[in-house]
Give the backbone structure.
Amino acid sequence: MDAIIPWAPLVLDALSAVLLLALVALGLVVIFGLMGVINLAHGELFMLGAYAVVVATGAGVPFWIAVAIAAVLVGIFGWLVSLVLIERLSARPLDTILATWGLAIAVRQGVVLAFGPGFRSVEKPTDASLSWGGITYPEYRLQVMAIAAVVLVLMMLLFARTRFGLAARAAIARPDMAAALGVDVKRVWRRSFFLGAALAGLAGALWAPLISVEPNMGLGFLVRAFLSILVGGSASLGGVLVGTGIVGGANSVLAQWLSGLSAQIVIFLIAIVAIRLRPTGVVRSQ
Amino acid sequence: MLEISGLHAGYGTSMVLHGVSMTIPRGTVTALMGRNGMGKTTLCRTLMGLVAPASGSIRHDEAEIAGLPPHRVAARGIAYVPQGRGIFERFTVQENLELGVAPWGGRVPAHVYRWFPLLADMRRRTAGTLSGGEQQTLALARALAANPTTLILDEPSEGLQPSLVEEMATLLLRIVGERRMTLFLVEQNLALVRRTATIVAFLVDGVIAGGAAARELAANSPLIHRHLGL
């Protein structure tokens, strides 16, 4: 028994990284599945969530309320992006890649103008640690894991069990038929963009106390989220979880022994092998 | 009632409809016949708002609906069963029907199960596992779940055996009579048209080339010869 104890924090670290990455990747998948839009600004939505928490806690807002505000604000930003930018390009899906790439640059530079290029930090709401069976682990990370897990389950229920989920799935499967049955497809798009952006904002907000907040912080997450989707497949939540488990887990475990660059190289190799063996993702759609 | 006048529509710069004008009186079954490629499906899709008209007018119960997006057309009580049925194969039968009721809520009306008792026992089945005839039934039930005043059917007999076509004719007449519904039936199956429709119009190269009372259409009628090549 003793032998596994040093491993436990490592496993928990990996699990929390995987759950947060799953929030980011799920947002990407929702937006891609519904609208066929590859949102290259998704990392910046993550970054905006972190900055929202920096600003809100700086203004004296309690941490957890700041997290909720961050998720909603980034969600509203996503809703506006859908309304102003994405819907106008709906007939030209390839151009949305350029548009979201441009948006990503604009948001990054906007944040540099507003906050400067330097690092910011956010206080953890608690520095306490929980001990159980000889394992000591920071309470905040456990809270983050619990929130991420609950949100992932809620998202699954939203798409599987609610009217919105039914309309959204119909709009993915047969957009024309869904519209002819009365689904306002553009409204579904806007709500999905809200959800996808809010998930990224939530992940950024929750992660903010654990890393340095800076304008380029979203990039690494965007890359890992895309790799996760490529590895796991974009057809289901299961695919997203498997993909993030492989990519996020490997990243977090490898970072213990290897330099950041070497870990990146190994992850790309894993991704290449996985995509070669399973071109449509580890979890296949029927 | 649907009044179509001078309707031009198509895809990009290639027009398919070149000034379609016709009236579908309220509470009647009006059929549209024509060979493949004449623009029948494009007309259905334009009525439904899935193809934007280049010019012309579509009036539904006095209100102009040309150019409305499809969900607004649906909200005005117009339901549509496309060619190929448009079933969501990976959804359950129940989910398909619920989408028909109204996208944001509501129950499947009891009379739908009265018309289609078969579906009541299949609610939990995945729609893709249904037979062709069952899928056509589901598509029709889904369209009727919204209690539409006007129903557009694009080739409902396609791929059905003659006995099922006969069954469908009986059911359509019963439903149209019970709900005083306006039915626009796009068909190539003369038997179904003669059993259900009052008036038949012929679409040739994107314009209405003539019409006749359905009763007068014998299989050897010169109209059928000219417009359907039978």
Summary: Chain B touches chain A through 25 residues (CB under 8 Å). The longest strand of chain B covers residues 14-24. Residues 2-77+148-228 of chain B form a domain with the Rossmann fold fold (CATH 3.40.50.300).
